[in-house]
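#structure-requests
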Amino acid sequence: MNQPREEIKVSMRETSKLEQRGRLTVEPDHITLGDALIVLQTFPDNCVDFIITSPPYANNRHGPYQGVPIDGYVEWLKPISEQLKRVLRPPGSFILIIKERAHDGERATYVLELILEMKKHGWLWTEEYIWHKKNCYPGKWPNRFRDAWERCLHFTKQKKFKMFQEAVMVPRGNWAQKRLEKLSDTDLIRDESHSLSGFGKNVSHWLGKKYVYPTNVLHLATECSNRNHSAAFPISLPAWFIKLFTEQGDVVLDPFIGSGTTALACVQLGRRFIGIEKVAAYYQQALTTIASEAGQAVGFRYDLQQRELFERLNALPV
């Protein structure tokens, strides 16, 4: 994959420093400029509590990331996922936000292939959440409609993991007021489905509840102001998962942190963050955004060596 000349120089310099350091204790509230696979190899085992990220799209965006070829996407992301599994603590979770693109008149299968490959390497595909983009971009194609959702794949290392469902409960809704006014005899017991599917419900369990558990579909608008990033997601997306899978003080990793949305969510929720970003412009935008919105009060600071590195970058010939 071709990189701009300045990006190669930054990656080489930063990578050299990381390789000399070896696997040391990672510093929370810190963003590293470099390639995710190389940087992750310097992290110690079991050092983060939660991972959430949206990796570069497959080949359909040719901006700073230069795209990842569809036929090589699984091989590109597989070693990164193996490193993520190594650095994630056993009770932690990994949310992978991804959507397969249409290619040559049909949907590509690389996301499904990636899931199977990750399972081979020990990941448990625990759940799949859907991010419904309420304000998706307009468009017209001869054989399909607009993309209005993305997968949020939930992977874990073990069947028992940290999950705080009460943290994301939602209002019960006005529909319940009339429905619960008068309950039938079957509403007071677990009423089995007449289709003999094994499913059933007990409507009386809704009595007295103001909040209930949500579904696995998240209805969130896309990020309109996009923080100078070509594919920024709304801060409410990582915030929802961070509340669901972490506690105060936990360390959250985003290996493709872009302009810093995940870090901002962590700051707002009292979590620690670790980010990795290979594109110098996005890295600098993340530092600037977090510093301006979070300030010194939350412990975030510029890494002086990296800031100096970025300033030297501007003087490099293109």
